[in-house]
Amino acid sequence: MKLFQVFSTTRTKLFVESVDKLLNTVDTSLILFKEAVRSYLYNDAESFDRTLSAMATEETEAGVLRRDIESMLYSRGTLIRYRGDIMRLLERYDHILSILSDDVIQFEIESPTVPAELRKEFVKLAELATLAAETTIPGTKAYFTHPDQVSENIHRVYLYNKQAVKLSQSIKRTVFHDMEPLKLSEKFHLRYFALHIEDLSTAAVKVAEQLSVMSIKRSL
Amino acid sequence: MFLSLLSLLVALVAVTLPFVRVEFTALGGTVVASGAREFPLIKLLIPLLALATLSLPFLVDGPWVRRLPEGLVPADLPSVVAIGLGAAAAVATATLIHRGSGVPYAVMGAVFGCQLARDGQVEWVLLGQMAGCWLVAPLLCCLLSALLSNWFQRYASRGGRHLAFVDRRFQICLCVAELLLVVSVVWNMGPVLTLFPLAVLGGGWVPALFTLFVVGMLSLVSMRFLLSRSTGLAESVLDFGPAWTLALVLSMALCLLLSPTPLSVGSLLMAGLVGISLAQQNALLSGEDILKSAASSLSAPVLGLLISYCLGMVLGVRADTVGMDGWNARLLPTLILLGVVAMALALYLYVRAGRNEARREQTLRFREEQVYSTQKALSALEVRVETHEKELLNKLEIKRKELVDFAVGVSDQKAFMENVYDQLSRARELPDGPSREQALDQVLSQLRDRMYFTREMNDFYARTEVLHRDFNMRLKESFPHLTESERRLANLLRQGFSSKYIASLMNITPKSVEISRYRLRTKLGLKRSDNLVQFIKSL
Question: Architecture of domain A9-219 in CATH?
Answer without folding.
Answer: Up-down Bundle (1.20)
